[in-house]
Design a protein that fits this description.
The complex is a heterotrimer of chains A (about 350), B (about 400) and C (about 290). Chain A has 14 helices and 4 strands. With about 350 residues, chain A is mainly α. Chain A has a single domain, classed as ABC transporter involved in vitamin B12 uptake, BtuC (Orthogonal Bundle), CATH 1.10.3470. The chains are: A mainly alpha (about 350), B alpha/beta (about 400), C mainly alpha (about 290). Chains in contact: A-B, A-C, B-C.
């Protein structure tokens, strides 16, 4: 956020993520704020924050494959499940530490994601979307019919620990989740500024043109899938060690649809958009959960507390409104706001 | 990056505002009962009616001054059978003033939340999963466990088979959801079948939203009895499919307490379901319509004719009655000030040996090492447009000890 | 052998219903190039309207059917006019996401209306069974299958012999050329949504007659999508064949693989087929292969 008349003088400055002293101050200040948040935050807020951060990790992955590379995937929850179960099996059945299991589960999910991404060789758009739905169901079917994953019963897992310090409360695990979110956000942000990120965007905008330019599109599509599923796997692993339990019914197609909704609301192809989308829709969900008892009192005919169906309805409505009036999402609105600030007092 | 932190900052301010504006309920003496139920998903067909009953009874208590002046706050949450939603819902209400009991209306939700409930030292209720009986912790079952119900039905089948003049043991088919719940019954039920010598065919598991169940039924066509699991409308649909295949003439169908609902199975599709037997741990059908408390609650709060009484209404009253009884004991033992989940836990363990549910369920059997609310079941049969009793309380065999959990 | 015939016949009869759902998605795609997820909800609401007319208001079957078709058509019209029409000029992908949003939005209403309870029709199709040397065929399923086939015949005739049908085929070939030939493309869009909503509503009634109206009903729409992709998104005949094949494969795989694989194969089989089709023949059995230009 820069006022009018501040310019970059060197190339290094122009490409820097953090550009001015004010930015540094704000960045450090807000990180500090995030790190001391558990000291004063109410209990439920922390739970919500954990949930939001894990969702952010998963949706960041989805943003890379769908928003940036243009390969729509509804299968993200399945890859989360792969990560979660892989990590759960490693820690409970083989006694491997969480800290090793976490990256491994990301890689495992990424490898499964390569299978999920394989159809993208020949198909794209909604054909691929249907393909990922198929992958979702098949993955879940395999997970629930394997013996080692506990089948339908699922597994219960230990909280992560260092030495004798166990991350078993929301406040403690918050730090793990926060640090991983920061690292992964930074990675995603930088990835999109790199050659790979630009190739992704080229494939999204016109994969045929990209291929003609000499890009190995299949390789990059698979790479996008791998990274995306790696993120999902990390998210899933964190999720299962936070809840200390993993069960196939935690990962349903509805979540996959929700994730897509989040990047639509946030803005396709934008990293801040992920934060916007996730936070907006999560808070909306909370609002519905919060408001539905009052609504039931107003209209008794609604039944006991239809939070879930109201949630779905509001979710659909928000998506419709965004697709018609702001298809580029909240990130675009944010850009407009910033531009107006920068060129103030002129109007754009 | 600069955008991100600003966004985060804004959002946290917003979150803080929301958190601070959360209402506090500390004015009246209240205790809370949290129900993580499903009002719009796969088990809503019966769960909604159960919740209504529970709500009605708590309203009734509160209207009459509460339990020794303590009002009960009933908090239903719609999870849509979604574990993540249940967990966030639970965490949302975890710090509610004097939350004593949480109710997990779904097998996966119960399993997922068990560690949290135990850590928070709550009493929690769960439908009927044998695992929690085998390893008693803080979870209490609504009635007896699925396994016991199934085993009691096996006993009934064997007796029915003999009474029809056949020799030997009947062949029994099993159908259930392709989920944790669908597989729960056979963890113990299978061993019991082996023990009494019933020939149990290979179990069939079908996906929840299946349109046509004919393949599963065709494979079970040699059975004499078929147990249909799943939650209504699934059992009703399965038996309708069987009726379409002409199997209902030769095969006796038996369901569990999640079986045919009054409106759908018993009334609308009564032609197909004629003769179906339902195994329940509460009273149902015409019995329930005559029960004074059920009748009173239904007419007073639902204001509909008594013959529209949904089958599982009694289950919800069972929750509420157990809760009320335990609350009385806990209040007497420790008083309102010191009342917490632990006191309630002790109180629940003392409920055994009494008829708490006024005959809706059998004699209560909760105890220090016993998590089943009762060990008896009743059998009902669809006859005409009603569900009529064909037995009194029958002791259900213990099949938990047969399985290694 | 009797088992095999039983699996196959039930599969074919149910497959006919899948085909009906699939063809409604094909219709929309043919004209507008939009793949619609919203049809799952149009199906569920069609089934619900019919229940309201038949069992709540106690109308005769024909009146109920006409009422359902007109209400469903109205819903299709509204969906097209207010959600798809504003997106003309945007990418087709956006339109796909829009139909998905419509699905979610309507899903809320559907679940809220049901509030967990199931609804069932009082019997309006013939009941009972035929017994063909051990293979049992339900009259109810057979009659809904026949209705589905009749609708297919009507659709074939409509596209082959009527002027509007010709216009629609022209539109599906090329929007700009069709417009320059004096065809009102927007009018065709509206019309096709109306027709396809009516078709899917009838499909919904047929499905609900088998499985009752309860919460998973809208998800039959996903089965319809599989059928549409299997047969090729442009081909009505393809949808018919694919629907029947899907029903057949589902039942046979569940019939013979459930045992060795431990249950739940029925759903998985449909998705394996979908994945195979997508990899081997991405444009379906009878779909048109698109040649892309830069």
């Amino acid at each position: 956020m820069r006022p009018c008349g501040v310019f970059d003088e060197t190339y290094e400055k122009d490409i820097a993520i953090v550009r001015t002293r004010g930015h540094w101050l704000l960045l450090i200040g807000s990180l500090l704020f995030l790190f001391i948040l558990p000291l004063f935050a109410p209990y439920y807020l922390l739970n919500l924050t954990n949930n939001i951060f894990i969702t952010v990790i998963v949706v960041l992955g989805l943003q890379i494959v769908t928003g940036c590379c243009g390969q729509i995937s509804f299968g993200q929850p399945a890859f989360m499940a792969v990560g979660a179960f892989f990590s759960a099996v490693l820690t409970t059945k083989f006694g491997i530490s969480f800290w090793i299991a976490l990256p491994l589960s990301g890689i495992a999910a990424g490898l499964v994601g390569l299978i999920g991404g394989a159809p993208s060789l020949r198909i794209k758009g909604f054909y691929l979307a249907m393909g990922t739905i198929a992958i979702f169901y098949l993955t879940m079917w395999v997970i629930t019919h394997l013996h080692i994953t506990g089948g339908h019963q699922g597994l219960s897992v230990e909280s992560p620990s260092i030495g004798s310090f166990v991350f078993d409360t929301d406040e403690r695990i918050y730090y793990i989740i926060l640090i991983i979110t920061i690292i992964l956000t930074f990675f995603a942000r930088n990835l999109l500024r790199s050659r790979v990120g630009r190739v992704f965007v080229a494939i999204r905008d016109n994969d045929l043109a990209a291929e003609v330019m000499g890009v190995n599109t299949f390789y990059y599509k698979l790479l996008a899938f791998f990274i995306s599923c790696f993120y999902a796997g990390i998210g899933g692993s964190l999720f299962c060690h936070w809840y200390t339990v993993v069960n196939s019914e935690q990962y349903t197609l509805i979540h996959g649809l929700n994730f897509i909704g989040m990047i639509i609301v946030g803005g396709l192809g934008s990293i801040p958009g992920v934060f916007f989308g996730v936070i907006f829709l999560r808070l909306l969900d909370e609002l519905v959960l919060f408001g539905s008892p009052f609504l039931t009192e107003l209209i008794p005919k609604l039944g006991i507390a239809p939070a879930a169906s109201l949630g779905v309805m509001v979710f659909g409505l928000v998506l419709i409104i965004f697709l018609i009036f702001q298809p580029r999402g909240l990130a675009h609105t944010w850009e407009i706001l910033k531009t107006s600030y920068r060129i103030y007092p002129y109007k754009n | 990056m600069k955008k991100i932190r600003l966004i985060l900052f804004g959002v946290f301010t917003l979150c803080c505002l929301i958190a601070w504006s959360m209402p506090t309920f500390a004015k009246e003496k209240t205790v809370a009962f949290l129900s993580l139920s499903d009002f719009t998903g796969p088990i809503a067909g019966l769960a909604v009616d159960i919740e209504k009953a529970c709500e009605d009874y708590f309203t009734y208590i509160n209207e009459n001054g509460g339990v020794d002046g303590v009002k009960i706050r009933y908090i239903p949450i719609d999870t849509r059978y979604d574990v993540a939603r249940a967990i966030s819902g639970y965490k949302r209400y975890r710090k509610t003033n004097k939350l004593l009991v949480a109710n997990a209306v779904s097998t996966p939700i119960g399993k997922a939340l068990e560690p949290l409930f135990n850590r928070d030292k709550l009493v929690w209720l769960v439908a009927a999963d044998g695992e929690f009986v085998a390893h008693p912790k803080r979870g209490f079952l609504w009635g007896n466990c699925y396994q016991d119900g199934f085993s009691a039905a096996l006993d009934w089948m064997a007796a029915d088979w003999k009474s029809k003049g056949n020799s030997g043991m009947p062949t029994v088919g099993y159908m259930g959801w392709d989920s944790a719940y669908g597989r729960e019954l056979l963890r113990g039920g299978k061993e019991y079948a082996e023990k009494i010598g019933v020939n149990l065919l290979k179990p069939e598991y079908f996906p929840t939203g299946t349109m046509d169940h004919s393949t599963y039924l065709t494979r079970l066509k040699n059975a004499n009895y078929i147990w249909v699991g799943g939650i209504d409308p699934n059992p009703t649909n399965v038996i309708r499919d069987a009726h379409r295949l002409g199997m209902t003439k030769t095969i006796q169908f038996v369901c569990g307490y999640w079986g045919p609902a009054q409106y759908l199975g018993v009334r609308l599709h009564n032609k197909a379901l004629q003769g179906t037997v339902v195994t329940v741990f509460t009273i149902r059908g015409t019995d329930a319509q005559k029960h004074p408390l059920i009748k009173k609650m239904w007419l007073k709060y639902r204001k509909k004719p008594i013959n529209e009484l949904p089958g599982p209404y009694g289950i919800g009253l069972g929750w509420a009655l157990h809760f009320e009884a335990a609350l009385r004991i806990a209040l007497k033992d420790v008083g309102y000030k010191k009342l917490d989940g632990e006191a309630m836990f002790q109180a629940y363990q003392k409920l055994g040996g009494r008829d708490i549910t006024q005959g809706i369920q059998g004699i209560c059997t909760y105890g220090p090492n016993e998590r089943r609310a009762s060990k008896v079941v009743r059998f009902y049969q669809v006859k005409g447009k009603e569900l009529v009793p064909i037995s009194g309380w029958v002791k259900a065999p213990d099949s938990i000890s047969l399985h290694k959990f | 052998m009797v088992d095999f015939m039983q699996f196959a016949i039930n599969g074919i009869l149910v497959g006919g219903l899948y085909a009906l759902v699939g063809v409604s998605i094909v219709l929309v795609f043919k004209a507008t190039q939009v793949v619609s997820l919203a049809h799952g909800q149009l199906l569920a609401f069609g089934a619900l309207f019919f229940w309201i007319f038949l069992d709540q208001l106690n109308f005769p079957v024909w009146v109920a059917l006409l009422g359902t078709i007109s209400l469903a058509a109205l819903m299709g019209f509204i969906t097209e006019r207010f959600t798809i029409r504003p997106l003309i000029g945007e990418s087709l992908f956006t339109a796909f996401l829009m139909t998905f949003s419509v699905f979610m939005f309507l899903d809320g209403f559907f679940q809220l209306y049901l509030s967990g309870q199931s609804r069932a029709y009082s019997p309006f199709l013939p009941e009972g069974t035929f017994n063909l040397s051990g293979v049992i065929i339900s009259k109810g399923l057979l009659s809904s299958f026949t209705i589905a086939m009749l609708i297919f015949a009507a659709l074939f005739a409509f596209f082959k012999f009527t002027r509007t049908g010709l216009q629609m085929r022209a539109t599906s070939e090329n929007h700009i050329l069709a417009q320059s030939a004096g065809i009102g493309v927007k009018k065709v869009f509206t019309l096709i949504w109306i027709i396809s909503s009516a078709v899917v509503a009838i499909g919904g009634i047929a499905c609900a007659n088998v499985m009752d109206i309860h919460y998973p009903l809208p998800y039959i729409g996903i089965k319809g999508l599989i059928v549409a992709m299997f047969g090729g998104l442009e081909s009505i005949g393809g949808a018919l064949l694919a629907g029947i094949l899907l029903g057949l494969i589902e039942n046979l795989s569940s019939g013979y693989l459930d045992g060795p694989l431990g249950g739940g194969v029925k759903d998985a089989a449909a998705y394996v087929i979908l994945l195979l089709i997508l990899i081997v023949k991405p444009y379906g059995l009878f779909g048109l292969k698109k040649i892309e230009r830069i």
